[in-house]
Amino acid sequence: MTRLRLSLLFIGTLLLAMISFTATAQTVNGYSVTFASRTYVEAADQTTFIYVVTGTGVDPALSHFDLEIPVCETSLTVVATSPSEAVEFGTDPTTGINGIKWDMPLGTTESRTYSITFSGNVVAGDVLVAVKGGNGFETGTVPGPSCATPELQIEKFVSVDGSTTFTDADLAPGPQADLDAEVSFRFAVTNTGTVPLTGITLTDNLLDLSTCTIPAELAPEAFFECTVGPVPAVEGQHTNTATATAAYEDMTITATDSANYFGGEVPAIEVQKFINIDGVWTTAGAAPGPEVDPGDDVSFRFVVTNTGTVDLADLTLTDDTVDASSCTLPPTLASGEGAECIVGPLPAVEGQHTNTVTVSASTADGETSVQATATANYFGGDLDDDDDEDDDLPVTIIIVGPVESIDVNIIVIYGISIELDPNDPLLTVIQIGDVVSIEGDLAEGSGTTIIVIAITIIIIDVDIYITDDGVWRDDGECANPPPAWAPAVGWRAKCEGGNPPGRGGDRDDDDDDDDDDD
Fold first, then answer.
1. Which stretches of 41-189 are DSSP H helices?
2. Distance between CA 84 and CA 47 in Å, rounded?
3. Single pTM value for the model
4. Tens of pLDDT, residues 57-97
5. 13 CB contacts (<8 Å, ≥6 apart)?
6. Cα–Cα distances in Å, from 335 out to 308, 313, 339, 358, 468?
């Protein structure tokens, strides 16, 4: 067993959520072992089991006290013990109990309180205890920690299309419902724990659920459902919350879930922010963003879209760093329509630059306002500006893929142009569709074009041999024999059933010949 020392956790005046089991006592090897209480502290999410061991004046004296800790699929976590000294965890080789051992003596007329605290709400069950004294020990059974897990889950769904589809709309606004439509709600309650649950209730803060049929008991993994509605849709944002409760012994388990829908037209707006460096527009919502030399030009583009179902008016656009007063937005923006403006070019500043745009609008009647934000980033200067000579080295990339097109000494893979040496003999045999692996340097392109200067190129799916004597490509046909200088192992094995030149015949035959020479 491993000896541990744990500091005692003082419960103090924390809220005691529940106490289960009344004190019970039994005599074990001449000592009265009393289970005093099980206490769950909701604020700390911890459970404490307390035992009192008292001598009855009968020898032999207690040498150590064991308490079983069950082995669960999800291990129980001990956070404190009392006493905290002389504590060992594991299997006691004397008593055979797997759990905690307090290896400290207790006189036959003395009394001591033992406690063990676990993380979480640990349910009580039956466990073994042992009192070791002299050359023997006795065991008993008392309430203690168990692997039982009482858990409950509720899912609430909403339908705005006549119960054809139900949506788990936990977050607002949820689906949009016409004001002359009806909505329905579905509730699914599941026992996600390992013990049966009873005393089940189901309520909603806005709906009457008295028509729901609730079972008297819910076995582990079992569930029940209930549908309420249709009811008339209400105007505006609608959020209601369902609550399910159940009991296990003296514990109460609670679960909640909400559903949302929006009655009538849904006002919503979106803004996207782009940054232009060297003629390329990009979204750079996360820092550091692209690098730019301080003083070089940068521009920002703002794209505003009405993503709701109702026209918007009184549009405004502001930026926390950039002067966006030159942006002119339309007086109204119909559902699905967008508008955009560009600010810049502006000189890039040194260091990390982050700015946020905010767009606001309201419905035509002015009763509802909406807002959206977006951020753009760039870094002025070199992020790796450490004066290393390596900073000036070209960027080397590796590309593996099929050849899409060939134009003289330029091949294209995944839309990337790769420049080969015009004198490379590989150009005489490479074909569209060949899968190649290329390592090369990234060269500057124009606009969005990327050009790679190939350093090494390997054709993966075809055998090709290049020497000063010539070039040979295995096209898969036996009618295309290789020259004598090409190993062409695959072709020769398939078409000749033999070895490449210089390999000779069967190795065993060679060995036999050698044997004959001896």
1. none
2. 17
3. 0.51
4. 999 999 999 999 999 988 999 999 999 999 999 999 999 99
5. none
6. 6, 11, 12, 19, 69
